[in-house]
Amino acid sequence: MTTRSTRSPRRRTVIALAVVLAVLAGFIVRLVDIQIVNADDHIADSMQVALGASRTLYGTRGEIVDESGQTLAGSILLYDGVLDPKNVGPLTREAADGRRVAVPWKDVAAEIAAITGQTSEEVQKIVADALQDDPDSQFAYLKRGLTTEQYRALVDIGAPFLTFDQHPARTYPDGAVGGNLVGFMSIDGDPLAGIEQSQNDCLLATDGTLSFQKGKDGVIIPGTEVHQPAVNGGTLQLTINRDLQWYLQQLIGEQVQDMGAKRGTITVVEVKTGKIRAAAEFPSVDPNDVSAAEVENRYSHIFTDTFEPGSTFKALTGSMVLDAGGQDLSSTVVASSTETFANGARVRDAFEHEAYDYTLAGVLIDSSNAGISKFSERISPQTRFDYLQMFGIGSGSAVGFEGESKGLLYPVAQWDNQQLYNTSFGQGVTTTVPELVGAYDAIANGGLRMPLSIVESCTKADGTVITPQLPDPTQVISGGTSAKMREILENVAMQAGYAQQVEVPGYRIATKTGTGEKSNGSGGYKAGVYFTTMIGFAPADDPQYLVAVTLDEPTAVTSSSANAPAFQKAMTQVLKTYRVMPATTAPTLLAKFG
Questions:
Q1: What pLDDT is recorded for position 325?
Q2: Which of 176, 213, 300, 490 fits as disulfide partner to 540, beta carbons 3.0 to 4.6 Å?
Q3: Which residues pair with 55 in a beta bridge?
């Protein structure tokens, strides 16, 4: 029989055990709450304490690639070398005989300098200057932008007072190929020019962070890390063909030097799409070494320069009178080398000749200012102005290139007596290369002007593909007018004085040249100084590609025939690159005179 005296201790033991278990359960619940249920909140709160720290997780800026995916701009890791001036001193190393020897700071500085490209004195001065400003200084840049090879060599020195901050940097594998177009970045990663700047929204990466707590010894406390991941930039695909761009840059460089010009450009456009396949310039800039280029050579003159187009505008005026003036291939005007018009305006041709009964083809073949001026009278000035606007003159382009310029087209009300005629042959009006090739695209493409583009797509880090929103094409002239102008421009290529220079065996070519005078800034023109242009397309009967070559102030040959050798070679290479088939039909020979 159990007595009260035996039950009492047992009851007390059970009660005590229950209390202990209840307290333990409370601790367990609280521990689960702290370490699991509300762990993120508690870690975030702990980041506010004095020993909290964070590190930037760098995102990678997106690549710029050509039409086939070849890299024009990419990202690499560079390193900033950081010295701890307060702790700089000799290093202890093991000698060949096994003894431990001290290497003086002066000798260590020499080893560092041999890797970084500095002198030993320069490295020592960095430390001395930092300590002079602050005797307790623990931070001074040794050198920024060190390569991976330099970083590894410096690490091998084994200096505990030398550390490194890594960050992504831009690299351009092909150097100056497309340099004026692609643009470049600052050392701090800011886009400064070209596509790097205009398409920054696609390419830009978003940096993340790693936050953590560390003990007094600097060691990260496990479980305190909080990641905010970085997001890489998108891949920007251009319409440019890298290999064609390289070839044309070499070509225009040779032509600029042969002709003693200030600079030159070659632009290639796919007629049916408006896609720019090459935009070559000389002088150019290597984005890897921007400081090596003069300031005026660090951007794209294709997109930023304006100029008087000269006789290239005769094809635009010819298109207008065919489309709206009741003219045909058999229509004629009588024009001598100098004509005085009823309003007192005088127009001269570049060569002396008697009064010719010119066809429209003859006017463009001989590039007669007087002849095209007479044809221009067959439509109203306002009609000409309206057509120029539809051709895109004065409106820039759809490319949206950083710093892109627009031509200057005055309203008809501001045309004086002379300008009334000069605008028909490309004086008294300015344009840009994109505007001019856009206008010729309309002539070549059945009258339909395609919006120019240089960006194919942007593929974001999550795989989303974004294509540029382009304006609708503009029907400028009829398909019939386009066919007639193609025929006329083909005859220009066959019958002009430079015909043999632009001939591409096996292909039917259409061309027109322009020699624009350059303003002296005081309302007149510079004497003997010109901006020359040759523009054309092939095949003439079914245009696929359009090529424009410009030279700024050529001196060896000052007329637009200076552009002919580069045009012929450029067009030949374009037709090879895109495997355009040779002609299977013969051209129609048009008469110059009625």
A1: 96
A2: 490
A3: 210
Cis peptide before 539 (omega within 30 of 0): yes
- Per this entry, what is the length of the chain? 594
Q: What is the pLDDT of residue 8?
A: 66
Can you list the positions of beta strands (E) in 391-490? 448-449, 455-459, 465-466, 474-475
Question: Closest Cα partner for 285 from 181, 169, 189, 186?
Answer: 181
Cis amide leading into 283 (omega within 30): yes
Pull the structure tokens for residue 143. Answer: 């050198």
Backbone φ/ψ region at 64: left (φ over 0), alpha (ψ -120 to 50), beta: beta
Beta strand residue intervals within 343-441, DSSP E: 346-348, 356-359
342: its two tokens: 């009823």
Query: What number of CA atoms fall less than 13 Å from residue 383's CA on the CB side?
Result: 15
Please name the helix (run of DSSP H) or strand (run of DSSP E) that holds residue 281, with its range, or none: strand 276-282
Residues 6+ apart with CB under 8 A from 281: 180, 181, 249, 252, 263, 264, 265, 300, 301, 302
Q: Give, for 528, the enclosing helix (H) or strand (E).
A: strand 525-538
Which DSSP category does 423 fall into? G
CA dihedral over 269, 398, 240, 309, signed as positive or negative: positive
**What DSSP assignment string belongs to 279-332?**
EEEES---GGGGGGS-GGGSS-HHHH--B--GGGGHHHHHHHHHHHS---TT-E
Mean pLDDT by 10 residues, the chain (594 residues): 56 70 70 64 52 71 96 90 90 84 91 94 94 90 91 92 84 95 89 95 88 59 77 95 98 97 98 98 95 94 97 98 97 97 96 97 98 98 98 96 95 96 96 98 98 97 94 98 98 96 97 93 87 98 98 94 96 98 95 96
Concatenating the DSSP letter of every residue in 337-363 gives SEEE-TTS-EEE-SS----EEEEHHHH
Can you list the pairs that 27-33 forms with residues at least 24 positions away whose Cβ atoms lie under 8 Å? none
Q: Return d(Cα 444, Cα 68) in angstroms, integer.
A: 26
DSSP characters over 120-175: HHHHHHHHHHHHHH-TT---EEEEEEE-HHHHHHHHHH--TTEEEEEEEEEE-TTT
Cα gap 492→65, rounded to integer Å: 38
Contact 92, 101 (CB under 8 A): yes
Q: Which helix (H) or strand (E) holds 433?
A: helix 433-444
Residue 200 carries which DSSP code? H
Strands 100-103 and 226-228: unpaired
Q: pTM here? A: 0.82
Structure-token pair, residue 204: 């830009």
Burial (CB count <10 Å: 0-12, 13-18, 19+), residue 157: middle
Element (H, E) at 571: helix 564-577
pLDDT confidence of residue 44: 55
Backbone angles phi, psi at 535, to 5 degrees: -135, 145
Q: What is the CA radius of gyration of the chain?
A: 36
**158 φψ region: left (φ > 0), alpha (ψ -120 to 50), beta (else):** left
The total of other beta-carbon atoms located within 10 Å of residue 116's CB is 16
Which residues 6+ apart lie within 8 Å of 348 measured at CB? Answer: 337, 338, 369, 370
How many whole angstroms separate alpha carbon 583 and alpha carbon 413?
Answer: 46
Distance CA 271, CA 69 (A): 22
Give the span between the Cα atoms of 156 and 201, in whole angstroms. 40
